[in-house]
Write a sequence for this structure.
């Protein structure tokens, strides 16, 4: 009888542990590489966000595609670009170079780091994110490294 209780307790503990490991609410998507296809997000919306981080003089420029349909709410459609010293996501706060809040129009966004701040010699990676109206966040990361 004691053996049956121990076996049942071990099985119950294993099931409890398995149930405690939940699927992540969000995922990181890498946009580099080749090929084509559609990746669906939690809301069933095609993931459209991309990022191209380039050097313009002593500044960074971020540009790419982003969602502008009703699945992303109403205009203005905001894309957040984090420029980070490491390719670790989410970027540790001590490694954040700067963060840009850019507006997507007609499926695209573009913007530069502020004038008056030199990023000359800073090797950085970029990650773009955009939140859908369902609360699901699309990511494109990392792009780089880029050094102005």
């Amino acid at each position: 009888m004691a053996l049956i209780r121990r076996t049942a307790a071990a099985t119950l503990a294993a099931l409890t542990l398995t149930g405690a490991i939940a699927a992540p609410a969000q995922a990181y998507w890498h946009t580099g590489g080749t090929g084509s296809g559609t990746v669906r997000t939690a809301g069933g919306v095609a993931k459209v966000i991309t990022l191209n981080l380039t050097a313009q003089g002593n500044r960074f420029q971020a540009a790419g595609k982003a969602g502008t349909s009703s699945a992303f709410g109403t205009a203005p459609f905001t894309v957040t670009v984090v420029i980070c010293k490491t390719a670790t996501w989410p970027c540790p706060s001590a490694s954040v170079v700067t963060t840009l809040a850019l507006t997507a129009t007609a499926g695209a966004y573009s913007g530069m780091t502020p004038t008056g701040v030199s990023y000359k010699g800073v090797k950085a990676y970029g990650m773009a994110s955009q939140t859908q109206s369902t609360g699901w966040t699309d990511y494109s990361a990392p792009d780089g490294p880029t050094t102005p």
